[in-house]
Amino acid sequence: MPRRQVPLQASTADLIERIALFFETEGFSRIGGRIFGRLLLADAPMSLDRLATDVSASKASISTETRSLERRGLLERIGKPGDRRVYYQLAAELPMPTMALRLDRWRRFSRLLEEAPADVARHSPLVRRRLDDTLAAHRFLLAEFGDALERWRRRNETPTPAPRS
Amino acid sequence: MPRRQVPLQASTADLIERIALFFETEGFSRIGGRIFGRLLLADAPMSLDRLATDVSASKASISTETRSLERRGLLERIGKPGDRRVYYQLAAELPMPTMALRLDRWRRFSRLLEEAPADVARHSPLVRRRLDDTLAAHRFLLAEFGDALERWRRRNETPTPAPRS
DNA sequence: AATAAGATTCAGTATTGCCTGAACATACTG
DNA sequence: CAGTATGTTCAGGCAATACTGAATCTTATT
After folding, report:
1. Which bin fits A27, alpha (ψ -120 to 50), beta or left (φ > 0)?
2. Which bases of chain D come closer than 7 Å to a protein CB?
3. Could you tell me which residues are beta bridge partners of residue A88?
4. How many degrees, rounded to 5, is the angle at CA A48 between CA A46 and CA A54?
5. A139 CB neighbours strand C below 7 A
């Protein structure tokens, strides 16, 4: 018999809720954010059912939202031998996919700007200059940020190998 | 008599629309995005009425949305002597506020994580480690990005004025 | 002062997208 | 194979938000 589920600590639930709210402003659904928050504070992978009760959402929502989080690289599903259920946990190297997501969105805007010139060739020099500047800034920062990300990855990959996982 | 307003070039309107759609995914309203897009391709500041017709939205929407864009630092309002109307244009150094916005959002998440430890002190070491790592990554990247932004600002400020600030 | 132009606020409508229960699919167990 | 556990998909209800027309406010012009 599984032991009665202890409801989450009030302060924990609160933190999760704020994370969820934040995620909502970032284009996720509230429940998606709750799942992320819950898993961020989980010390073991969690099953769908468990997530559903913890986050008090329907299994349907958990199913769709976990898939969405997985598609974006924030979440991984794992199996346990001798257990039919699927378990969910946050991506191993969490910061990377998080940042990759941001990079993507922002690359999308760059691409939009890149498409412009062809259309806009006959616009005033002023406009052309504005577009060029904006695009240049984006490219510069995108590159710099990509580098920083790479540096972080390196830095964190070196210290680990000494002791084994 | 003001000369008949030429409707926007189809390709231009199209680009604006894609920009608007993008802005929508970034937490702005569609009309906010349209205004931004229109101004990005404008070779002169535009009045509220003009924006309303160009973007085919009510003056009410233009009013609220320009305010919102202004509050976020993306848009400036200017006056012309001998003209009662207010004119709108994109921020002079556009990339900076754009990026500042992104930075903000992401700082907000860092702050969320910083609040966690107090609550979560009794969580498993694994959780604590995950939180610490994530926070460290955020701090690192936040700092790096801030630096990059500063570098860009410097680089673009030097060419313009010959001597120092 | 009266009028009018310009801009903002507000209340109501319409649209969007989230979330859920229930039906459905799949695969394990005895 | 029957029965059951697990997960997914779907249609509909509901809440949140954007957008608008109309009313209101502010300030220049006569």
Report:
1. left
2. 5-10, 17-22, 28-29
3. A46, A77
4. 70
5. no
β-pair partners for B90:
B75
Place of tokens 């346990």: A80
The pLDDT, as a whole number, for residue B4 is: 42
Pick among A141, A150, A154 to test the B interface (most B CBs inside 10 A): A141
Q: Is A142 on the interface with B (CB under 8 A)?
A: no
Residue B21 near chain A (CB below 8 Å)? no
Contact B119 A149 (CB under 8 A): no
- Which residues in chain A land under pLDDT 70? 1-7, 119, 121-123, 158-165
Contact B149, B99 (CB under 8 A): yes
Between residues 49 and 68 of chain A, which touch chain B (CB distance below 8 Å)? none
Q: Please tell me the pTM assigned to this model.
A: 0.89
Total residue count of chain A as it appears in this document: 165
Place of tokens 């959780």: B127
- In terms of Cβ atoms closer than 10 Å to its own Cβ (0-12, 13-18, 19+), residue B119 is middle
How far is it, in rounded angstroms, from Cα B19 to Cα B44? 19
The Cα B38–Cα B62 span in angstroms is 12
